[in-house]
UniProtKB/TrEMBL annotation, chain A:
This is Serine palmitoyltransferase 1. It catalyses: tetradecanoyl-CoA + L-serine + H(+) = 3-oxohexadecasphinganine + CO2 + CoA; octadecanoyl-CoA + L-serine + H(+) = 3-oxoeicosasphinganine + CO2 + CoA; dodecanoyl-CoA + L-serine + H(+) = 3-oxotetradecasphinganine + CO2 + CoA; L-serine + hexadecanoyl-CoA + H(+) = 3-oxosphinganine + CO2 + CoA. Component of the serine palmitoyltransferase multisubunit enzyme (SPT) that catalyzes the initial and rate-limiting step in sphingolipid biosynthesis by condensing L-serine and activated acyl-CoA (most commonly palmitoyl-CoA) to form long-chain bases. The SPT complex is also composed of SPTLC2 or SPTLC3 and SPTSSA or SPTSSB. Within this complex, the heterodimer with SPTLC2 or SPTLC3 forms the catalytic core. The composition of the serine palmitoyltransferase (SPT) complex determines the substrate preference. Its cofactor is pyridoxal 5'-phosphate. Keywords: Acyltransferase, Lipid metabolism, Membrane, Pyridoxal phosphate, Sphingolipid metabolism, Transferase, Transmembrane, Transmembrane helix. Pathway: Lipid metabolism; sphingolipid metabolism; Sphingolipid metabolism. Belongs to the class-II pyridoxal-phosphate-dependent aminotransferase family. InterPro entries: Aminotransferase_I/II_large, AON_synthase_class-II, PyrdxlP-dep_Trfase, PyrdxlP-dep_Trfase_major, PyrdxlP-dep_Trfase_small. Residues 99-414 form the Aminotransferase class I/classII large domain. Pfam families: Aminotran_1_2. It comes from Balaenoptera acutorostrata. Its EC number is 2.3.1.50. The chain crosses the membrane at residues 20-40, 161-179.
From TrEMBL, chain B:
GO terms for cellular component: endoplasmic reticulum membrane; serine palmitoyltransferase complex. Residues 167-527 form the Aminotransferase class I/classII large domain. It comes from Balaenoptera acutorostrata. Keywords: Acyltransferase, Endoplasmic reticulum, Lipid metabolism, Membrane, Pyridoxal phosphate, Sphingolipid metabolism, Transferase, Transmembrane, Transmembrane helix. InterPro entries: Aminotrans_II_pyridoxalP_BS, Aminotransferase_I/II_large, AON_synthase_class-II, PyrdxlP-dep_Trfase, PyrdxlP-dep_Trfase_major, PyrdxlP-dep_Trfase_small. This is serine C-palmitoyltransferase. PANTHER family: CLASS II AMINOTRANSFERASE/8-AMINO-7-OXONONANOATE SYNTHASE, SERINE PALMITOYLTRANSFERASE 2. The gene is SPTLC2. Pfam families: Aminotran_1_2. GO terms for molecular function: pyridoxal phosphate binding; serine C-palmitoyltransferase activity. It is a single-pass membrane protein. It is an enzyme of class 2 (transferase). Belongs to the class-II pyridoxal-phosphate-dependent aminotransferase family. Its EC number is 2.3.1.50.
Length: 447, 561
């Protein structure tokens, strides 16, 4: 069979060659010649590599002048000269030599100068020294850290908690651990700077919705659903997250959590709740905004808070189900690559938790005081109070802006200075003007 | 400026220690044959006579991986991967019990939170030897430490604490270079006093009401310690990098960063929005080529000139134990008008005759480095970070750094610990304790490295670096080494993928001034035993000085966000 086929092919070929029309043969011939030419011609050089001579390159190097490393800062930049506080930053504070009542620290429960906290920290200092000399993975895990994580998990009634050594790094490391390139995050426009940095590090798609506006969020979610239906295969691997704060730092308002949970189940997005200001403030026992609204804590995928406000310590924590939290132990950048929290700060936080658990009455007292101050400040001419009545941190904004942000800031700074002369310490809300996505209007913060 | 008895402000001639160092180092460098010795020695001389930039020999070596070992390592990982697939299969079909946590029932139809493959390494390789990490301790992390014993009955999926404490384990894993991790002594007493007075927390940011007088005092002290005009301190070392690099560079600038830079530097560079190009580790030709190309060709596509070029390097690289070639980097920086950001997380306090870091070690001028950054966690026994430089730089950072505006200031007792330990190192507290610690550390480093090399292990890094990586290579040996050393009462740190390249897993020793010679001898004896038991003595004494590593003319990697 094979030989017959071979013979057939050869004979046929020769015959075809004789019988082919002339133009056909000529075209084939030209094609073959062209291929041979291409094979033997020189390789094509990229334009850039051959243009500049060595001398020209050296001239370019000589000529190039970089910008100065930092632009000069004018001497009267409002943030250049810090207020110097001598002595402990407790309720009576000495700022720049003047004694004032402290309305500027986030010391909500007044635990900053509590003797029990100091005693616990001192005991830990005597046992373990100050620093931990290593990250959690390499002999930096102390029994105090494990205790604190247990206690926080029990307090918040979740399965597990994880501690970070710095409040800012907590949410900024937690978000990129879960949300990667290609995932979608729906975040409130008034989210704080740490959340913005976490989102930037995660490289996900960010969709902003108007502050506390559930209709706007629903609109965005619906649009996303329509997109998903167009491309179901991509939708199956795109994770969706909603990031909100319990009590917003920039506006002093509380997020509408029940509606958010409904939206979560309807559109299948996970909720990350940032409770820095609401932990230890809202709720009957201080468990935060979930207790305030009476929502089951398992409905929230991740709660992140920092211990620098109510707990009067330093650091931050995340709590939630083990399924979610355990992942951060290997992929949370601020956890794996950074030294752990000094044990004396952890011991102080445990003692603060003890105090919170022993006297649940302090939260009601705090709410009362907040309501009173809120009411008392309502009538001041020229300033309006922005924030919920039970929020311990709220903003005082100018009723009518002068039109220029700098002048507003100067005016508010004047108010602050005059208040300090009279013995009340307030502070101007600080923002990095060029970095924030949605700059809130200038205001005074009053925690 | 620093007040040093009998020395000028900036340039510090390193003659005193240098002669001793020269003699010991060269004698201690073992060679197998005279020929290679002559060749290698001449190559090292070539490096030191490189335009007279180096005042002392720069002995850094990375011995090549023996071929057989590399092959066996790959085989080992192959076997583990196969078994990993088998176990996953069994778990999927419920033949094997599934130990790890699962999603809630109500959320099972959500898009899954983790990709299965992402966790393959964690589930199947990391889990097997997980007991070597996260070991909890319950005493001060000094030269000896108490480790809490824990057991696992389900192959490391969960741990139970037996309640026993393994006492007095020799600690070769904590970053305690000068031995300031103590719970007694002047530092602790001063910190206790400040704790009583100021409390623990601060509850405010630097720009609002969190700037205590203690912080101002600390910053002045740090500036005088480093020999710069001004300094600024932050609450967390990691955050110092990730929050200040974006304040200094932005889109339109170029960052040239070393291959093996720390995660915080990489994160800071990414968040800034600048273009990042990576040069080969400690390789000056690679850096020079990138600089030349950057200035000549400008920004990609638009060809506009770059606004600024920033070089990111570290003083000591903690996974390799190598020291940056600072004199050459500074020469390049001056020639091409770039800016230098030096991260001295591990080298401050640990290098140099007066403990002022890698600038002091090479005898250079601190004003040549534009931005000196470091952390207080390692040599000062506290926590936090700092940045030092010219006054304009610090003024700019005080107004524009993310940390000053949004993050809390450092805690007062921690600040006091730094102040006391820094004064001790500088000799300002009236004792010579600081100087003794520095000398003790240098001696310990030389002794330890020499002995390990003599035993036949492959040790990476520079002769003077207190970080000593000992190569293990094979995945099974990672777990075995960690466990065997703990049985013999020595706590070590073992590192594998992804912190190191996949076949180059290692054990890393961090030496401390608190280690006495007896402790080092005990440790060395045990390491010798374990080395024989696990066949870890791979070295064939064919160390290749770094300059010989072939530099291939490949184009750079460019990462843009």
């Amino acid at each position: 069979m094979a030989t017959v086929a071979e013979q057939w092919v050869l004979v046929e070929m020769v015959q075809a060659l004789y019988e082919a029309p002339a133009y056909h043969l000529i075209l084939e011939g030209i094609l073959i010649l062209w291929i041979i030419r291409l094979l033997f011609s020189k390789t094509y050089k990229l334009q850039e590599r051959s243009d500049l001579t060595v001398k020209e390159k050296e001239e370019l190097i000589e000529e190039w002048q970089p910008e100065p490393l930092v632009p000069p800062v004018s001497k009267d930049h409002p943030a250049l000269n810090y207020n110097i506080v001598s002595g402990p930053p407790s309720h009576n504070i000495v700022v720049n030599g003047k004694e004032c009542i402290n309305f500027a620290s986030f010391n909500f429960l007044g635990l900053l100068d509590n003797p029990r906290l100091k005693a616990a920290a001192l005991a830990s200092l005597k046992k373990c020294g100050v620093g931990t000399c290593g990250p959690r993975g390499f002999y930096g895990t102390f029994d105090v850290h494990l205790d604190l994580e247990d206690r926080l998990a029990k307090f918040m009634k979740t399965e597990e908690a994880i501690i970070y050594s710095y409040g800012f790094a907590t949410i900024a490391s937690a978000i990129p651990a879960y949300s990667k390139r290609g995932d979608i995050v729906f975040v409130d426009k008034a989210a704080c700077f740490a959340i913005q940095k976490g989102l930037q590090a995660s490289r996900s798609d960010i969709k902003l919705f108007n502050h506390n506006d559930m209709d706007d969020l629903q609109r965005l979610l619906k649009e996303q659903e329509i997109e998903d239906q167009k491309n179901p295969r991509k939708a199956r691997v795109t994770r969706r997250f909603i990031v909100v704060e319990g009590l917003y730092m920039n506006t002093g308002t509380i997020c509408p959590l029940p509606e958010l949970v409904k939206l979560k189940y309807r559109y299948k997005a996970r909720i990350f709740l940032e409770e820095s200001l609401s932990f230890g403030v809202l709720g009957e026992h201080g468990r935060g905004v979930t207790e305030h609204f009476g929502i089951d804590i398992d409905d929230i995928d991740l709660i992140s808070a920092n211990m620098e406000n109510s707990l009067a310590s330093i650091g931050g924590f995340c709590c939630g189900r083990s399924f979610v939290i355990d992942h951060q132990r290997l992929s949370g950048q601020g956890y794996c690559f950074s030294a752990s929290l000094p044990p004396l700060l952890a011991a102080a936080a445990i003692e603060a938790l003890n105090i919170m658990e022993e006297n649940p009455g302090i939260f009601a007292v705090l709410k009362e005081k907040c309501k009173r101050i809120h009411k008392a400040l309502q009538g001041i001419s020229g300033l309006k109070v922005v924030g919920e009545s039970i929020s311990p941190a709220f903003h005082l904004q100018l009723e009518e802006s002068t039109g220029c942000r700098e002048r507003d800031v100067k005016l508010l700074q004047e108010i602050v200075t005059q208040c300090m002369d009279r013995g009340i310490a307030l502070t101007l809300a600080r923002y990095l003007e060029k970095e924030e996505k949605y700059l809130p209007p200038p205001s005074l913060v009053q925690p | 400026m620093r007040t040093e008895p009998g020395g000028c402000c900036c340039r510090r001639p390193v003659r005193a220690n240098d002669c001793v160092a020269n003699g010991e180092v060269r004698n201690g460098y073992v060679r197998s044959s005279a020929a290679t010795a002559a060749a290698a020695a001449s190559q090292i001389h070539h490096v030191t006579q490189n335009g007279g930039l180096y005042k002392r020999p720069f002995n850094e070596g990375f011995e090549e991986t023996p071929m057989l070992v590399a092959v066996l390592t790959y085989v080992g990982y192959g076997v583990l991967t196969l078994f990993g697939y088998l176990r996953d299969f069994l778990r999927h079909w419920r033949i094997e019990k599934c130990h790890h946590a699962t999603e809630r029932e109500e959320q099972k139809d959500f898009v899954s939170l983790y990709q299965d493959f992402e966790n393959f390494y964690t589930r199947n390789l990391y889990m097997r030897i997980r007991d070597n990490w996260n070991r909890p301790i319950c005493s001060v992390p000094g030269a000896r430490v108490d480790i809490m014993e824990r057991q696992s009955h389900d192959y490391n999926w969960s741990f139970k604490y037996t309640g026993n404490v393994i006492k007095d384990v020799i600690n070769m894993g904590s970053y305690n270079y000068l031995g300031f991790a103590r719970n007694t002594g002047p530092c602790q007493e001063a910190a206790a006093k400040v704790l009583e007075e100021y409390g623990v927390g601060v509850c405010s940011t630097r720009q609002e009401i969190g700037n205590l007088d203690k912080h101002e005092e600390l910053e002045k002290l740090v500036a005088s310690f480093l020999g710069v005009e001004a300094a600024m301190t932050y609450g967390m070392g990691f955050a110092t990098n990730s929050m200040n690099i974006p304040a200094l560079v932005s889109k339109g600038c170029l960052i040239l960063s070393d291959e093996l830079n720390h995660a915080s530097l990489v994160l800071g560079a990414r968040l800034s929005g600048a273009t990042i190009r990576v040069f080969k580790h400690n390789n000056m030709q690679s850096l020079e080529k990138l600089l030349k190309d950057a200035i000549v060709y400008g920004q990609p596509r638009t060809r506009r000139p770059w606004k600024k070029i920033l070089i990111l390097v570290e003083g000591i690289y903690s996974m390799e134990g190598s020291i940056v070639r600072l004199p050459e980097v500074i020469a390049l920086k001056k020639k091409y008008k770039a800016y230098l950001y030096l991260d001295e997380a591990h080298s401050i306090g640990a290098l140099g005759p007066t403990g002022r870091g890698v600038v002091d070690y090479f005898g250079l001028d601190p004003e040549d480095v534009d931005i000196m950054m470091g952390t207080f966690t390692k040599s000062f026994g506290a926590s936090g970070g700092y940045i030092g430089g010219k006054k304009e730089l610090i003024d700019y950072l005080r107004t524009h750094s993310h940390s000053a505006v949004y993050a809390t200031s450092p805690s007062p007792p921690v600040v006091e610990q730094i102040v006391t330990s820094m004064k001790c190192i500088m000799g300002q507290d009236g004792t010579t304790l600081g100087k003794e610690c520095i000398q003790q550390l240098a001696e310990n480093v030389r002794y330890f490295r020499r002995r390990l090399k003599n035993m036949g292990f492959i040790i990476y890094g520079n002769e003077d670096s207190p970080v000593v990586p000992l190569m293990l290579y094979m995945p099974a040996k990672i777990g075995a080494f960690g466990r065997e050393m703990l049985k013999r009462n020595i706590g070590v740190v073992v590192v594998g993928f992804p912190a190191t390249p996949i076949i180059e897993s290692r054990a890393r020793f961090c030496l401390s001034a608190a280690h006495t010679k007896e402790m080092l001898d005990t440790a060395l004896k045990e390491i010798d035993e374990v080395g024989d038991l696990l066949h870890l003595k791979y070295s064939r004494h064919r160390s290749v000085p770094l300059l010989d590593r072939p530099f291939d003319e490949t184009t750079y990697e460019e990462t843009e966000d």
